[in-house]
Specification:
4% strand; 431 residues; mainly alpha; 3-stranded antiparallel sheet; elongated; 21 helices
Length: 431
């Protein structure tokens, strides 16, 4: 009895292993004749279980091709269904669809016989677009790592036949998602890849001659062809993110503390985009950190030439001249230029006053070093010191007027009031 049972189990196992053909056919009938996606999904998953237990050599090429193609087709129908019950049959339906179509194309290329390859190739663009859209949805829901994976998979899918396209926009999207997901190494890698690709991030638009609406095209060639055909006019190319990509790379390297790579990409970015003010400012920061003040001044003058009314650039120039290069007259001139643009700019007013306060304090040290017998010299220095404090006073009073909450301004103004023996004002200010 034990032998009969064992023999029966072996025969049952052999029969089960031989059932993929009818199960695949049932899946095909369910989806193509009956449009019963749920039933088709059940059969194709059952066929997957059977096939997974066998080597490919034991499955007819006809059945295997049919299985791969319909695995892709049925799962894609599940993913695209508007019926929540159907869509909920398998959260991995899109991934299985892409896998099925790719397996079909690779397999039929391997055996040299194309039964469903053309049909699968027609589906690939739609699958790729579905991945891109899923990435957008994940990004909206702040699943940045998931969006990164979908955008990158879209890029890889489009690179392969039949599309053989280099969709650099997907790499750009993936780079943004990697940064949002705090995957900084990946973000650096992808942004450097974009630099090597020469990615611009431009949009291509033209006006529909019939409707008058502005239409965006997927690429420059498509836009030019549409205009050439006469159906569209006024072609426009907008945007260029190349400098922004350099800014992203330099920012990520700086965040990682890799100053060598930061400086390398700042220098490279400046050479390629000399008009970009943000890169200019990064190079300025690099020169400042390395105490290359002469080079920093060249950058500031260039920035000012690009934007003469930029009050901050004039102010920064004054700070470097004052604190680092000790050229006080030139610093005061830079602050005056800043104040001619914005008379309420309290930082420029305060720093102007500090030039005079420092001079007055230096005289104070000289006075303290005099012997008690040098009374005439002391009086002379005291008079000179007072005149210098008087020069500082209007700057500080204006700075306090425009920014009364600034503690540094308040402290300096109190000091000057006391130095000028204006004790009532000093007391009122403290109160």
């Amino acid at each position: 009895m034990k032998r009969l049972t064992l023999t029966f189990l072996i025969l049952a196992g052999l029969q089960m292993m031989a059932q993929e053909g009818p199960v695949i056919s049932s899946a095909v009938i369910a989806v193509e004749r009956n449009n019963d996606i749920a039933e088709a999904k059940k059969y194709i998953d059952e066929a997957q279980q059977i096939i997974s237990t066998k080597p490919k050599s034991e499955i007819s090429s006809k059945n295997l091709s049919k299985f791969y193609y319909h695995k892709g087709l049925i799962n894609f129908r599940v993913y695209n269904s508007e019926d929540p019950a159907i869509k909920g049959l398998d959260p991995q339906a899109l991934d299985k669809a892409a896998e099925g179509f790719r397996q079909l194309i690779d397999y039929e290329k391997e055996i040299g016989k194309e039964r469903y390859t053309d049909d699968a190739k027609q589906q690939i663009p739609y699958v790729a677009n579905a991945y891109a859209q899923r990435g957008i949805n994940k990004s909206t829901n702040e699943d940045f790592q998931g969006a990164y994976e979908d955008f990158l998979y879209t890029y890889e899918m489009k690179r392969q036949p039949p599309l053989s396209q280099t969709d650099t926009a997907m790499v750009y999207n993936a780079a943004i998602m990697a940064q949002n997901a705090k995957m900084y190494d990946k973000a650096i890698e992808l942004n450097k890849q974009l630099i090597d690709m020469g990615y611009r991030g431009q949009t291509y638009k033209a006006t529909d001659a019939e409707s008058g609406q502005v239409v965006e095209f997927p690429g420059k060639k498509q836009m030019e062809f549409a205009v050439k055909s006469g159906g569209y006019s006024n072609p426009v190319i907008e945007g260029d993110v190349r400098a922004d990509i350099y800014l992203t790379v330099t920012g990520l390297y700086l965040r990682a503390g890799d100053t060598a790579m930061y400086e390398q990409y700042v220098t490279e970015g400046r050479k390629k985009f000399p008009e970009n003010q943000q890169l200019l400012l990064q190079e300025l920061q690099k020169f400042f950190a390395n105490k290359q003040y002469d080079k920093a001044m060249v950058n500031l003058d260039e920035a000012i030439a690009q934007d003469p009314d930029n009050v901050i650039m004039h102010y920064n120039k004054g700070v470097i001249l004052q604190n680092e290069m000790k050229e006080y007259d030139k610093a005061l001139e830079a602050y005056q230029t800043a104040l001619s643009i914005d008379s309420t700019y309290s930082d420029a007013l305060y720093m102007s006053s500090i030039i005079f306060i420092d001079q007055a304090n230096a005289i104070g040290k000289e006075m303290n070093a005099l012997p008690l017998s040098a009374n005439a010299k002391y009086k002379e220095l005291e008079k000179r010191q007072k005149s210098i404090f008087e020069k500082a006073l209007p700057y500080l009073e204006r700075a306090h007027k425009f920014n009364p909450s600034d503690e540094q301004v308040t402290l300096a103004l109190t000091q000057v009031y006391r130095a000028l023996k204006m004790y009532d004002k000093a007391k009122a200010l403290q109160e």
